[in-house]
Amino acid sequence: MSKSPTRKPIEIKISTVVAVSAILHDANLTVLDKAMQEMTGGNADFFDDEFAVIDVGSLESGTTIDWAGIAALLKSYRLNAVAVRNATPDMVSETAAHGLSIDGSIKPRAEEVDATDAQLQATPHQAEIDLSPAAAVEVAAVEATPVAAAPQAAPAQFAANTMIIDTPVRAGQRVYARGADLVITAAVNNGAEVIADGSIHVYAPLRGRALAGASGNTEARIFTLSMEAELVSIAGMYRTFENGLPADQARKTMQVRLVGDRIDMLPIKAAA
Predict the structure, then answer these.
(1) DSSP states of 154-176 as a string?
(2) DSSP label at 214?
(3) Alpha-carbon span 127 to 15, nearest angstrom
(4) Strands 262-267 and 231-234
(5) What are the distances in angstroms from CA 135 to CA 24, 130, 139, 266?
(6) Which of 2, 39, 156, 257 is spaced 20 to 30 Å from 65 by Cα?
């Protein structure tokens, strides 16, 4: 088979992976198994082999964690543990030994956040599983995808649903509009990430990262009243701004689109 001289052996693109967040309030495997049984009601298809992030931020300092046991427990309920959130420095080597990556920054246990900051650690595009028996009943309502289900259509068609966010997206938060456009009427702060399978509209300053067309929609665009982004991406093609935006684009009303393999940024001007 002949190979095209322009074909690259490997390409690196931005990719969006959706995971559920398993929030541990207890590390006892028996307690966790009981909570999962109550949550799933014995339904073997309650989960569908999703990726899972193990959140240990609610555990007491010094709690002994059986990483292999917890990963195996989640696997038995068709959840694949891939990362750990709110890990402390002493957990890094052991989690790595079990093939678990670190999601987010590593925080010393002594610097645990208060209830308000802890809430911000939850990523809105991730379903949350609160693994405490008292909270298990409440999870079912949380797990529903916040956008309307896409109609059964050919994969090449992209849904016309819309997710609307009216509050600021803060550092450490992710918002994912699955199968939908994303409309945000408040600021997207530095360190935040907003993702949509369709286009992204931010009627406020856009800082942080914005990834449109996450499922491969090359026609998706990003619009903002004030372009201050750290990274923008359309259908996996991306552009970063470590050294800041050009003067003619910074804090301007802009749109971002994909032209071939190039990210194109254009000002939005009112029609005369």
Answers:
(1) -TTS---EEEEE-S-B-TT-EEE
(2) T
(3) 18
(4) unpaired
(5) 11, 6, 7, 48
(6) 39
